[in-house]
UniProtKB/TrEMBL annotation:
It holds the Pfam family BRO1. Residues 466-475 have a biased composition (Low complexity). InterPro entries: BRO1_dom, BRO1_sf, BROX. Residues 30-475 form the BRO1 domain. This is BRO1 domain-containing protein. It comes from Sphagnum troendelagicum. CDD domains: BRO1_Alix_like. It comes from the Eukaryota. Residues 454-475 are annotated as: Disordered. Belongs to the BROX family.
Length: 475
């Protein structure tokens, strides 16, 4: 199956759909996956045996066998796939592989939870080792079950993003794109992206705050809090992009809705790019990830200014047509910037075989924006040249991001741990900080403005806050 990069297969990245860059290697970039970290095979069984001999702690052979088997299975499923098959069969194999690996990770979590909520002594001194993708170091090994837990959540999130990319990747010729990638698949992709958001948010709100400070200081760039936030915003941004595509294709959707979705997308990509810029990323996939964020941010701003200009045109304020024309020109400028960043992204090592396709709402707007901007400039010269042009481009309106993911709650500890000597059972502290999330939601609620919320994709503003925490989603 696997798309996981390993330290001895770096030279083969470009030939693998997964190897480090999702489907970027062959140009099929719809949801960018910078790469999957892979667990390395380690002598976990031998370590557990030594712990039994050196202390009064004990773990049954059955539990040790399950731990070793599940982690080994994850490593096996992360192996490089066979690329000799046809594109269509590879696509099916990739989808199957993503599902198999996700199930293996979910099966591993209840056992892993035992090492973070009472079984720390049993794993004391054991170094969990994973390959990295965007950190300067190829591998990181840390003696902490929290590190292992963050690695699993990161991989689950990246698998969900890769699954969304596979959904959106056409399996037939490009002429059959519209008939193959239909509305239902796009809606499924949105739900899958939100699943990725829930994994990343769990890492941010539940695991990282509880991890020891010395472990947090040693985390690779792939697992730093800033990277999880960047990935969360990227997944949200790509989900909002799909929503905007529905609105653009729907003749009944209002300009207010299109503008709001475009502005929400801008906010997501601004936050993603801001966090990525602060990360100590390596050349290669790290640099490519930054370029992808720059590309998508430029496209999002091009669309936001385009719809903002159309809304301004319908107004009656002083110099409104001059302000609208300034926004049209800004839209064209960002459209050109997005096209440049797209080429830079494609040409940056590891290079892609094909230039990534223009898809989604930009597929409809890439030609419409410059054409309409040129037309509006002529109309302005003929009819509104007495209006005064603004000194600076009008600012985009600030909307809170309405699209949210349900909370992901880590599974309970596997019952097999409860009878083990040396296991100090306690209530898990790895829960999402609900009060902080509610405070954040309350802040976003204040930013809501009166706007037409008719949407093609069923999305609503944040619900009224209550003192009762939202019902979590069990893993």
């Amino acid at each position: 199956m696997g798309c996981i990069q390993s330290s001895d297969a770096i030279e083969d990245w470009e030939s693998s759909t997964y190897g480090g860059g999702g489907s970027a290697a062959n140009g099929e970039v719809y949801v960018f996956v910078p790469g999957f970290r892979a667990p390395k095979n380690v002598e976990l069984a031998a370590h557990l045996l030594l712990q039994q001999q050196a202390s009064s702690s004990s773990i049954s052979p059955e539990l040790a066998t399950r731990l070793v088997y599940l982690r080994s299975r994850i490593s096996h499923l992360a192996a490089k796939p066979d690329r000799s098959s046809s594109h269509k069969s590879r696509h099916a194999d990739d989808e199957q592989g993503v599902g198999d690996l996700a199930k293996a990770l979910e099966g591993y979590l209840p056992l892993l939870m035992g090492l973070t909520t009472g079984g720390e002594k049993l794993s004391s001194g054991f170094r969990f080792e994973w390959t990295n993708v965007e950190d300067e170091k190829k591998e990181t090994a840390l003696s902490s079950a929290y590190y292992e837990l963050l690695s699993v959540l990161h991989l689950l999130g990246m698998l969900a993003m890769q699954d969304a990319n596979l959904m959106l990747t056409p399996t037939l010729e490009i002429d059959d794109y519209k008939s193959k990638i239909f509305e239902g698949i796009k809606r499924m992709a949105i739900e899958t992206l939100l699943k990725a958001v829930s994994y990343f948010e769990c890492a941010i709100s539940a695991v990282i705050p509880n991890a020891p400070d010395d472990i947090k200081a040693k985390l690779p760039a792939d697992l730093m809090e800033g990277m999880f936030i960047a990935l969360e915003q990227q997944a949200l941004g790509q989900a909002v992009e799909l929503q905007l595509g529905f609105a653009v294709e729907n003749v009944t959707a209002s300009l207010a809705v299109k503008r709001r979705l475009a502005c929400e997308q801008v906010k997501c990509w601004e936050q993603a790019q801001e966090k990525l810029a602060c990360m100590p990323l390596a050349e290669g996939w790290g640099a490519k990830h930054i370029l992808f964020a720059k590309w998508k941010l430029a496209e999002a701003k091009a669309m936001a200014y385009y719809f903002h200009a159309q809304v301004l045109e319908e107004g009656f304020e002083v110099d409104t047509h001059a302000h609208a024309l300034a926004c049209f020109r800004e839209s064209v400028s960002y459209l050109k910037e997005g096209q440049r960043q797209r080429v830079y992204f494609n040409n940056t090592y590891p290079t892609s075989r094909l230039l990534p396709p223009i898809w989604g709402p930009m597929k409809h707007l890439s030609e419409r924006i410059p054409r309409e901007a040129s037309s509006k400039a002529r109309i302005f010269r003929d009819s509104y040249n007495e209006e005064t042009a603004p000194e600076t481009t009008p600012k985009l309106p600030d909307f809170p991001i309405a699209l949210t993911a349900e909370l992901y709650v880590l599974p309970p500890v596997d019952p097999a741990w409860e009878s083990k000597c040396g296991y100090e059972a306690r209530t898990s502290s790895l829960t999402v900080d609900v009060p902080s999330l509610l405070a954040k939601a309350n802040q976003d609620q204040k930013l809501l403005t009166s706007v037409d919320l008719h949407r093609q994709q069923p999305v609503s503003p944040p619900p009224p806050l209550s003192l009762v925490a939202p019902e979590p989603v069990q893993a």
